[in-house]
Structures are given as C-alpha cells and as structure tokens.
C-alpha cells in the first residue's frame, strides 16, 4: 500500500516535472526567437533606414520603397477583401438560413482558409499575372492576398455580428425599418470595433505573407508608382536578404521591423477586441 | 407602391449579399480550375502514377517524379510534430491547469501574438541559428560515428525544428482552449473519487479534450505541410528521399517556390501538378480536422 | 463618443486620400514621352534559349526608347538561330556559341554582343586554389566526394548548385561538361542528386561562404570578396581572361544576320553595342564586350 502511494508520488513528480519542462521549453524558445532578432535588429533601425532607398540590392541604404510597396499591396488587398468579407458575413449571420447551399458555401470558406499560401501564389501567377495580363504587379499581389485574408475577415465579422443582441434587431424591425436598414443603421454600427479587429488581423496576415507575394508582385526594388508596377513587400525583402546574405545588419533590422509591425498590429487587434467585450 | 419598391430593393440587396458570400466559392473554384488546368498536361503526358511515385525529380532532363518531394515534406512534417506536439500540449496543460490565472492569461495572449509572426522570420531564425548550430555543434559529434553524414547543416532536422517552433502557438492555444472547456464537474468528480491531480489531468481532462487537441494537431500538420518560405531557406532543397534526420530534403512547397521563376512551359506545368497534389493533401487534412471537431463538438 | 467617431472618420478619410494618391500617380505614370510618329519597325530575334533572357531585356529597353519599334524574341536553340535567318523567318539570329564553319555560308554578319562566364567558388576552409576541368566534372557528377582525393583535406565535399531551370545551371553543366548521355544520345544534366540547391546567385555565395568544405558556382560578374574563386586549368577567372578566351568556363553570345539587316534590325544591333546596351548586358549578369 505504502509502496503504491510512493509510486504515485514519483509518477506525479515526473509528470508535473515534464509538463513544466515542456512549458518552459515552449515559452523559452519563442521568447528566445523574439529576443534574438529584436536585440540584433533594433539597434540598426533608424529613421534613415526607413526613409532611404536601398542600394546594391539592399546591401546598403534603407527600405523606403519596400515599405511603400508593402503599404500598397496590403491596402489593395484589404480594400478588396473588406467589403466582400463584411457583406458575406452579414449574409451568413442575418440572411442565410440553414439550407444546403449555405452549408456548401460555408464549407468552401473553410477550404479557402486552409489552402497553403504557395497555392495562392501559383494561382495568382497563372490567373492574374499571366491570364489577365496584369504582369507582376501591386494589383496582382493585392488581389491574391485579398483572397487569402477573406476567410479571416468573414469569420471575425461574423463573430462580431453574433455579439449584437437579438433585441436590437427586433426593436429596429418593429419600428418599421427594413432588414437592410436594420443591418446598416443598427447592427453594423454596433460591432464596428469587432469588424475593425478582423480588418487589422487581415492586414497583419497580408503583411507577413511571403510565398503568395513572391510569385505575384515580382520583387522590383523600385519605388512603385502605379498599381501595375512590380514591387517588393517587407517579407519578400527579408527572404531575399536572408537567402542571399547581402548584409547581416540590414537583414536583422528588416526582420525586427517586421516583427514589431506585426506584433503591434496583433496587439492592436487584441486591444480593440478586449474593449469590445467590455462594451 | 413604396412598400413594393422597398421590397424589390430588399430582394436585390439580399441577392447581392448572397453573391458576396458565394465569393469564396468562386475563389476556390477559380483556384481549383487554374491549378488543375495548368498542371493537367504534365500529369497526362507523364502519367499520374509515374508523377507521384517517380523517384527522379530532374525537370531539366524531363523527369518529373515527385516521390522524393513528398517524402521530404512528410519527413519534415513528422519531425515538426514529434518536436512540437509534446512541448505544445505540455505547455497547454501547464497554462490550463497549473499556472496562476493571471500568468496563464498573460502568457496565452503572448503566445497568440506569436502566432502572427511571419513564417519568413522563422525561416531566417532557422538559417541564422539552427542550421549553423547543427553544423557546428551536432555534426562534429555525429561525424565521429558516421564520417559520411552530410555536413552542411541544411537538413530535415533543421526544417523540423523550425516548423516545430512555428506550430507551437497553434497547438498551445487550441489545446488550452479545449482543456479549459472541460466542465468543472469532471474535475470535481475525479478528485472526489480519490484521483490525484496527475490522474485527473491524464485520465480525465486530456481524454475529454482530445478532439480539440487532435484538431489542433491536424491543423498544425496542415500548416507544416503548406509552409514554404521557412523550409525553402533551411532544408537544402535536395530532391532525394532523405534517409535520416541529418539528410537534406526538398519539399513540395519549396520546390514550387524555388523553380517557378525560370521554369519552361512543361516544367511549369509540373510545378502546378505539384500544386494539385499539395492542394488535395491539405483539403484531406483539413476535412479530417473539421469532421473530428464536428463529431465530438470540441471547442475550437 | 463623438471624438471616437471623429477619429474613425479621419482615419477613413486618410485611407481614402492615400488610395486617391495611388490612383493619381497611376495616371501620371502612364504618360510616357510622345513617340515620334512613323511606321512601326518590327524586328524578330530567334535562336538560343540562353540568350533569350538577355535579348528580352535588351528588347524591352529598346522599345522603351523607340516607341514605334516592336521586337519579338523567340527561342529554339542556337542552331535554330542560324536556320531562321537563313530562311528569313527572323531578322536576327542568336547563338550562345561560336558560328560553326559549315554555318558561315548562311551568315553575312556576326556581332559578339556579350560573354557569359561562370566562376567556381569554394569555401575558404577547403584550401583549394585550383581545379582542373576534369576535377570539376568529377566533383559535380559525384565521382569524387572527398577533398582528399584531390589532394585536399580528408573532408567530404558539400556540393552546392542552382535550381532546375536556372540559366546559370544549364550553362555551367554545358560549359564544364557535367552532362551524361541518355539511351537516345541526348545530353542530360549530370549534376549529382545530393547537391544542395539554392535558388539564387546570392544564396549560392552565402551558402558556400558559410558551409565548410563546400563548392559552388556563380556568374562571373557576381564574384566579390566574400568567396574565393578557383583557378580553372591554371587560369584565374576574370573579365580579362574571359574576353581573351583563356578562361574556359565561358561562352559567347552572338547575334547573326542572314543575307542582310533591315534598317530597324541594324539600329537594334547598334543599340546593343552602345554603352547603354552593354550596361543592360552587365545588369543581366553577363560580361559586356566593351569595357569602360
């Protein structure tokens, strides 16, 4: 009897020990990764780095055109995905019943969410770049990314719409408003911050994406002027710098900046999301 | 009169919204159509079986066997799961059951923030730290036993390590949710029956949360299979079936990304055909995850 | 509450302005200098697939300058370049080798537009300074796998190569003779399967400089102080030794004319040989014929 008990204590100790170890390793590695890149990269960040053009394929100079390219591509993708995503979410949450068709559409949205980014890249290349003749360009990359972030936007908007109490809808409808008026004037304004959260998450995903962008925007380091110009986003630039070993300093600086931007964006989304739940 | 036109307007709006909702169907359909039609010609001329089970990937010589790439992808993914799943689930158990509430909340949101870090950053980390670490620390020791081991550090192990880290946030976050979703009564009942905390966790809570944990693993697997940039930078891209963790390997995704830019027409079609294989693989994995979640009604 | 609303309005307005800015810039970017009116000159270049990428770059720059010219670039192979000018299908033929004796009859004029040279680079730890063509072949075919077989240290060789489809890879296998004949006698890429594959010149350089006992190859004009190039058959790779013909892993890019050149084609060739055209040659990774 005593022996069994002792056994139990040892087993417990081993179990909790290993769980603690797993947690320590997980948290430790993730922290190490962040710290490593930030410590090596942040000292090289400067206003000059942000405002100057790269020279020698990024070996020297800054990343100004890359920043602009990132903003262009991201903005294009969000401007396309946002209206579609919100409209789709409104349909799912306010209009759609439980019919078979709706079920199928939902399934396809899930499928879209799971498709690996390189497939989006292949498709964007075959369809936008070649078939539609857009060439490697901001617009080809932007539309490709908009398809990628669409499921995120639909899902988060739908979640936000769910938080609107049913009484609001009934109240509005009973006052004689139509369904559409209810959606536009009552429901959407209620969950603005929820939609914003989704939007910000979408932006974060678009900024971080590389594989899809690589096959669709080309990679030119010139400052993009029109949306039909080839460009390079920060993630793609980081890939090029890392694989070609052009400059340690610039690589770490770009990686650190990318991490800071994405973390900042995700934190902002979380902040707005939490404020939403408080409201 | 006014009511009628309003009604018409409402119907039109509903139809328009429906079209937007069907946008993802259109997107999936277009993607499928273009990937399949672009990849079809090589699949037909080379033969789907030769394509999938061929051992020789040398597009320059007109050989399009992708078995080495499939093997590379599966080995790197399996390695990532072996390294990432125990650590991730352990961390989830810790956060859900052992850590102080305030700490758990803080750490969990930190981990969720990390989920957003671009994969290319993980790849860079692998290239700057893990590949040299394997090369300079691990390999000299291994070389004493096996002098012929590939000496570059670009390897399945490096890829598995980086992907293992990459999938941690997914596993931790989803598994933790699943464990927390187990009703309090289960815990109380188990403890009341005389089970200690370890037994409660291993025999009651984890089994009860298994569908959520399982889904997290499947999703992580999908992420590992589909990941491109990180593996492209660190696995060495050698289209040969890797026979050990220190062998370099090429993956399905990495090969597409790497060879697309200069590929001739037939080669390009073959890369699209790889896309078909990848697409089918991912859809199957995700369907399993969805089905499991639905069947057990686990928390996502 | 109102301030919140206002903030959001301002944010939305700012986003709109940025977008409007993009669109306005699009409009401006589209306006190019007015082209002089006149009929369109159409030039067709056909031949070597290795020269194709360079021809396309040159054609694009040329068309940018001469708005009323169109230059169409086709592949087919060096032999096809000769045939197509002979038959009058193309205005200019392109070759990535010298014109053969038996082909001279079909060609009225030759223009050496550029040279393509490839340097073999090694990691500094190898201590290797020189390799023969044969040794390079043995290494890349996997017949030699340890540096000691070549008089170096007892260390396995890590071979680095470019991805399938890369022009540098195909010229390297061809020029250094790393090929194998298949049953039908077709020349195949013979680079060993164990070679690490890197997708760009920079990545090859980076990998070779970081990986002990490794060997790789890059375009000659991508050489820098980061990695050491070996002497091949005793000759240091450099622009001079390539132009003089002493360094062996190299080839010429030649444009040829059949019975004569149209004025448009003549003008294009003039552009290629100009300092502007030669700059494009250099930017495309090849060695310009006219040095500054």
Radius of gyration of chain A: 24 Å
> Residue share in helices of chain C?
25-40%
Low-confidence stretches of chain A: none
Question: Order of helices and strands of chain C, N to C?
Answer: HEHEHEEEHEHEEEHEEEHEHHE
Specify the CATH homologous superfamily of the largest domain in chain A: MetI-like
Low-confidence stretches of chain C: 1-38
Q: Helix and strand layout, with pairings?
A:
The complex is a heterotrimer of chains A (279), B (300) and C (292).
Chain A: H1 2-41, H2 47-51, E1 54-55, E2 60-61, H3 64-95, H4 100-114, H5 117-131, H6 138-162, H7 166-174, H8 179-190, H9 192-208, H10 211-214, H11 234-244, H12 248-278
Antiparallel strand pairs in A: 1-2
Helix pairs in contact in A: 1-12, 3-6, 3-9, 4-6, 5-6, 6-9, 7-8, 9-12, 11-12
Chain B: H1 2-21, H2 23-46, H3 48-53, E1 57-58, E2 63-64, H4 67-98, H5 101-114, H6 119-145, H7 156-180, H8 184-192, H9 197-208, H10 210-226, H11 229-234, H12 252-259, H13 265-296
Antiparallel strand pairs in B: 1-2
Chain C: H1 2-30, E1 41-47, H2 49-65, E2 69-76, H3 78-86, E3 92-95, E4 109-122, E5 130-131, H4 133-141, E6 158-162, H5 167-175, E7 179-181, E8 187-189, E9 196-198, H6 201-210, E10 214-219, E11 228-229, E12 231-232, H7 239-244, E13 250-257, H8 263-273, H9 275-283, E14 287-288
Parallel strand pairs in C: 1-2, 1-3, 5-12, 6-9, 6-10
Antiparallel strand pairs in C: 3-13, 4-10, 4-11, 4-13, 4-14, 7-8
Structure description:
The complex is a heterotrimer of chains A (279), B (300) and C (292). Chain A has 279 residues and is mainly α. Chain A has two domains: 2-44; 47-278, Orthogonal Bundle (MetI-like fold). Chain A has helices spanning 2-41, 47-51, 64-95, 100-114, 117-131, 138-162, 166-174, 179-190, 192-208, 211-214, 234-244, 248-278; strands at residues 54-55, 60-61. The longest helix of chain A has 40 residues, at 2-41. Chain B is mostly helical. Chain B has a two-stranded antiparallel sheet. The longest helix of chain B is centred in the first third of the chain and has 32 residues, at 67-98. Chain C has 292 residues and is α/β, with parallel strands linked by helices. The longest helix of chain C is centred in the first third of the chain and has 29 residues, at 2-30.
